[in-house]
TrEMBL record:
Gene3D superfamilies: Isopropylmalate Dehydrogenase (3.40.718.10). Binds 1 Mg(2+) or Mn(2+) ion per subunit. Pathway: Amino-acid biosynthesis; L-leucine biosynthesis; L-leucine from 3-methyl-2-oxobutanoate: step 3/4. It comes from Streptomyces fodineus. This is 3-isopropylmalate dehydrogenase. InterPro entries: ICDH/IPMDH, IsoCit/isopropylmalate_DH_CS, IsoPropMal-DH-like_dom, LeuB_actb. Keywords: Amino-acid biosynthesis, Branched-chain amino acid biosynthesis, Cytoplasm, Leucine biosynthesis, Magnesium, Manganese, Metal-binding, NAD, Oxidoreductase.
Length: 347
């Protein structure tokens, strides 16, 4: 295991700045003395766009490529036209660095409120395909602006792309105690893509005899995520279905303040990127109100990806302890929560 971490840090816009500071605070606190942490900050997002018109250049990609991993806050601001930063930065980076595994754990931690009745057991991980489906920009418009406008947005599914993400999900299921993997798709209606996914899922399943498998249509999955979330352990699904069900998963398991994610390149050809699921929250930016917990949990995912499992476990434990006591602690600022978590992981 390498005893140094070379991290690219992209605070981005709005509360991204505030939560990333706290994530780095906890990261520094958890690492043992002999691990050298180097960070380089990059100024991407709205400021850069307004100043230069650039979102993410080839030179930026070359620079980012040199790092072991990337920690991102959030990118997006009301002053930038919708889609410019999403496509020009977030999607561009995911595609350029082949982040084909979008990892989103959902765990209902003690002390965290859920809108669901009772306090159900929620502890599952969604493995969302990140580079294909309808998000590739494979489409177009003709007769634009007329009553006869035509728009296509083609869902791209390759055997190569499906197999590598399905294989990753099986390996993750194999490593968890319950060893259960659910494929979520809509193979009764989207039969071409659906059969590709189902056939590859069933083929790869033979290599993982210990993993029990299940299939659920995406619409039914939204029901079970609300009525019976305990049935899920690992879910694998395509880019669009994954985008939707992970927001629902975040909502039922304690909300956006605690939802972490990783954009992972499992081959490690490019650095993986870790970020809270939430955006830049312009409504509370600059007020010290943002909950940094989702970013801190994303730092734990980052450490796990780099092989620092013990440190990641300590962060997870610190977050669990902090959340358990949170109700009794009253309102705390972003940096107060970060200080408390840093103190716990160091102690
Ligand atoms: P958002 O996640 O920024 O905010 C939604 C609501 O959740 C707001 O009321 C906000 O105050 C609250 N919230 C979010 N994070 C919070 C935290 N850590 N603690 C406490 N409250 C929190 O989503 P919204 O408003 O749709 O998007 C704002 C901007 O962020 C847009 O420009 C959007 O494109 C961008 N965005 C960027 C993402 C990324 O960088 N990966 C992901 C999602 C949105
Ligand atoms: Mg989303």
């Amino acid at each position: 295991m390498s005893r140094s971490i070379d991290l690219a840090v992209i605070p981005g816009d709005g509360i991204g700045q505030e939560v990333v500071s706290e994530g780095l605070k906890v990261l520094s606190a958890v690492l043992p003395q002999d691990v050298k942490l180097e960070t380089k900050e990059y100024d991407f997002g709205a400021r850069r766009y307004h100043a230069t018109g650039e979102t993410l250049t080839d030179a930026d990609l070359d620079a980012l490529k040199q790092h072991d991993a990337i920690l991102l806050g959030a990118i997006g601001d009301p002053s930038v036209p919708s889609g410019v930063l999403e496509r020009g930065f977030l999607l561009k980076l995911r595609f350029a660095f082949d982040h084909h595994v979008n990892l989103r754990p959902s765990k209902l931690l003690p002390g965290v409120a859920t809108p669901l009745a009772g306090q159900p057991e929620i502890d599952f991980v969604v493995v969302r395909e990140g580079t294909e489906g309808p998000y590739t920009g494979n489409g177009g418009t003709i007769r634009k602006g007329t009553e006869h406008e035509v728009a296509t947005e083609v869902s791209v599914n390759t055997a190569f792309g499906v197999e590598r993400v399905v294989r990753d999900a099986f390996a993750r299921a194999q490593a968890r105690p319950r060893k259960k993997l659910t494929l979520v798709h809509k193979n009764n209606v989207l039969t071409f893509a659906g059969h590709l996914w189902t056939n590859i899922f069933n083929k790869v399943a033979q290599e993982f005899p210990e993993v029990s498998t299940d299939y659920i249509h995406v619409d039914a999955a939204t029901i079970y995520l609300v009525t019976d979330p305990a049935r899920f352990d690992v879910i694998v699904t395509d880019n669009l279905f994954g985008d939707i069900i992970t927001d629902l998963a975040a909502a039922v398991s304690g909300g956006i303040g605690v939802a972490a994610s990783g954009n992972i390149n499992p081959s490690r050809e490019f650095p993986s990127m870790f970020e809270p699921v939430h955006g830049s929250a312009p409504d509370i930016a600059g007020q010290g109100k943002a909950d940094p917990t989702a970013t801190v949990l994303s730092v734990a995912l980052l450490l796990r990806h780099l092989g620092y499992d013990g440190e990641a476990d300590r962060i997870d434990a610190a977050v669990t302890a902090d959340l358990t006591e949170r109700a009794a602690l009253g309102a705390r600022s972003t940096s107060q929560i970060g200080d408390a978590l840093a103190a716990r992981v160091a102690g």
